[in-house]
Structure to design on (433 residues):
């Protein structure tokens, strides 16, 4: 009789001793059961919430609530919002800086699952300027992606500090440029006070002008703006625009503009342009053909310096094996295992993974093998790899991850996510207890 993989996963989840991991695993199982139309999904979420309620550490309990609510959102959105609200109410009782840290985690998760309005609501309570503004920029990005310019403007107005305000303005400008709303782009551009961020904005302008295939007259308008914004003879804004246009292949137009500059400034601008496009053979050739002889040597030196700085990447299975044999360092061995696993060299990967000593790094090594084995459909091999981590905590964690990915493979036909990223997050959680 074939094994019911969902019931077996449900049973194994109950053996996980770490309450946080048990709660998260039950929630993940519940989601995949829901996709499979297995009525036990309700029980899985009930068990997840019960496991969460039994966690003694309030911060860890809140993290579990956020994880469970995230899975629940894909099944019952309204119920999940109540769970997020419950997490929020507990967070408000925390002292600083834990309070802001947990509010950031809550808002980030809401943003990840597509709830920018809710994320904004909770972000407003963050006192730390850096954390709050970083999140506001992410929320701005979500609104821009949806084309909600009204709320995007509200976010930019809400941000008072630099560099976040200028970054937000640039993101808004980029959206206007995508829509070919050049008047609106110019209006927002004129509100940027920082010389540096004006330069960055001009680079974005250059990219979108080229991609939009606008007439030269439109380029001229932005050149006039750049000249008008340049203060005390500082041509940083204009230089940024010209570098951006050159990178888009508008070499002849760029040369025409630089020829209008005083000779004392022309060399500096041409050199910066040349350095920026030194990896574009056709463009740099056209530039060298177009500039006056007196600037040729300086520009050529700048290009050669840039080319000499570049080193071509090299990576292969044989090199990975060689490094694995030469280096006893555990972090190096983990990378060796990852490369070999991705290449399907499981036997060699396993040999190197066995040499990894630390429990955390060992879990990364065998986790890489397990994930890649799952991608080939070898479920038994994946479980065998997970069981190679004997440490109770990390063994439970890896089992939780692999069980979830087995169900993901069964339900969705693929394995996603970054096991190393998940392991780092779990390590931070345990280190903070």
């Amino acid at each position: 009789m074939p094994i019911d993989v969902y019931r077996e996963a449900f049973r194994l989840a109950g053996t996980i001793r770490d309450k946080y991991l048990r709660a998260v695993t039950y929630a993940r199982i519940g989601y995949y059961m829901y996709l499979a139309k297995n009525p036990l999904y309700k029980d899985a979420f009930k068990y997840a919430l019960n496991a969460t309620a039994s966690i003694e550490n309030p911060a860890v309990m809140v993290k579990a609530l956020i994880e469970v609510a995230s899975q629940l959102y894909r099944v019952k959105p309204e119920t999940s919002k109540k769970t997020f609200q419950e997490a929020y109410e507990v967070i408000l009782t925390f002292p600083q800086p834990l309070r802001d840290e947990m509010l950031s985690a809550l808002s980030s998760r809401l943003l990840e699952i597509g709830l920018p309005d809710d994320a904004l609501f909770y972000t407003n309570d963050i006192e730390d300027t850096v954390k709050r503004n970083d999140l506001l920029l992410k929320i701005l990005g979500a609104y821009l992606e949806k084309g909600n310019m009204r709320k995007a403007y509200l976010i930019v107005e809400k941000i008072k500090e630099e560099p976040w305000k200028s970054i937000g303005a640039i993101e808004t400008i980029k959206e206007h440029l995508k829509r070919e709303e050049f008047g609106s782009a110019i209006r927002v551009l004129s509100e940027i006070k920082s010389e540096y961020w004006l330069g960055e904005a001009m680079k974005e302008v250059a990219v979108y002008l080229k991609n939009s295939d606008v007439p030269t007259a439109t380029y001229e308008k932005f050149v006039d703006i750049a000249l008008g914004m340049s203060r005390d003879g500082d041509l940083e804004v204009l230089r940024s625009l010209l570098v951006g246009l050159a990178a888009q292949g508008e070499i002849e137009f760029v040369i025409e503009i630089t020829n209008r500059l005083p000779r004392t400034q022309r060399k500096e601008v041409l050199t910066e342009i040349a350095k920026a496009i030194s990896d574009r053979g056709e463009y740099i050739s056209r530039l060298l053909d177009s500039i006056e002889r007196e600037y040729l040597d300086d520009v050529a030196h700048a290009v050669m310096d840039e080319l000499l700085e570049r080193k071509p990447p090299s990576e292969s299975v044989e090199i990975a094996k060689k490094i694995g044999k030469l280096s006893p360092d555990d972090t190096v061995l983990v990378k060796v295992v990852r490369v070999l696993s991705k290449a399907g060299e499981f036997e060699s990967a396993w040999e190197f993974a066995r040499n990894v000593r630390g429990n955390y790094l060992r879990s990364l090594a065998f986790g890489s093998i397990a994930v890649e084995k799952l991608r080939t459909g070898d479920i038994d091999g994946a479980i065998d790899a997970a069981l190679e981590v004997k440490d109770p905590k990390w063994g439970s964690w890896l089992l939780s991850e692999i069980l979830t990915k087995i169900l993901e493979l069964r339900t969705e036909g693929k394995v996603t996510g970054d096991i190393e990223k998940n392991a780092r997050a779990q390590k931070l959680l345990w280190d903070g207890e």
Remarks:
- The chain has a mean pLDDT of 85.
- The two ends are 44 Å apart (CA to CA).
- The longest helix spans residues 392-412.
- Residues 317-424 form a domain with the Serine Threonine Protein Phosphatase 5, Tetratricopeptide repeat fold (CATH 1.25.40).
